[in-house]
Amino acid sequence: MLSQNEVQEIVTDSLKKLGVGEQEGRLYILSLKVGPASVATLATQLGVSRPQAYKLIGELEKFGLANYSGRKKFSRTFIVESPSKLQELLRKHQQLTVQTDQRLTFSMPDLLAMYQQGELPTSVRIIQDKENFLKLFFQTIEETNESCWLGSAHDFIGFISWAEERKWIAERIRRAVRVRVLLLPSEEAEGFKKTDAEEFRETRILDDAEPFETLYQVFANKIIMWQPKTPVAILIEDEYLAKMMKSVFELLWARAK
Fold first, then answer.
1. CA spacing 20 to 30 A to 116: which of 5, 22, 137, 159?
2. Looking at beta carbons, which pairs linking 249-256 to residues 24 or more positions away fall under 8 Å?
3. Rounded-to-5 percentages of helix, strand, coil across the chain
């Protein structure tokens, strides 16, 4: 059985997730403990004035956690709604949060396309270890309708595995995200060419390039340098650098036609 402190911590965390303020949260927990009580009693135990206590009650009513103003005039005691109501409200809030996140994710390619960096500083992140490497790999599908890749498919897939690559391709197709890939000669590159049509992809081969083991990807205002040997990925968010790397890609893309 949970201790009283543990229960209070859980309730406090739930209230915070709903956006309930600290003082309103204290009133809710106090009311749960003492049961029906006068506003004067609650104000004294909270260490606030009666007008402030009424204000806190009003805030709890806005969240649906109290119904004091709707009670009969002769009733002089206050008590918050049951913890079951808190659970119901929290679940609704979580559902709305998931829906909002889904809408934001769906619109992310358009939002990033609209984004103008101006004088904001460049953002650089270093991503290490395979787990985070793969998380970033799958995250890229959420942020673009099209991306460009240049480098060694052999080394990249040799690191992440064909199983992960196929999962990524399936999710990319589901989201209708197209890619153009400019690859060093390899069996993997030739394999991609054979399935380009059904996999929303166009593949070209850099026959005259010196061999190397890395790739870079350009999409929206971002560049990712994928280095599968350590492994490490360098994520750069800078619209000007992204334009430059996209220009380099387009030049080499035209040469490889």
1. 137
2. 249/148, 249/150, 249/182, 249/218, 252/150, 252/182, 252/206, 253/148, 253/180, 253/182, 253/204, 256/182, 256/204, 256/205, 256/206, 256/207
3. 55, 15, 25
Task: Report whether pLDDT(32) > 90.
Answer: no
Amino acid code (one letter) for 49: S
- CATH number assigned to the domain covering 123-255: 3.30.870.10
Which of 135, 152, 133 has its CA nearest to residue 143? Answer: 135
Residues 218-232 pLDDT 10s: 988 899 999 999 899
- 124 beta partners: 236
State both tokens at 48.
């606030």
Sorted by where each begins, the domain ranges of the chain are 4-86, 123-255
> 165 with 179: CB under 8 angstroms?
no
pTM for the model stands at 0.60
CATH top-level class for 4-86?
Answer: mainly alpha
User: Residue 26 pLDDT more than 60?
Assistant: yes
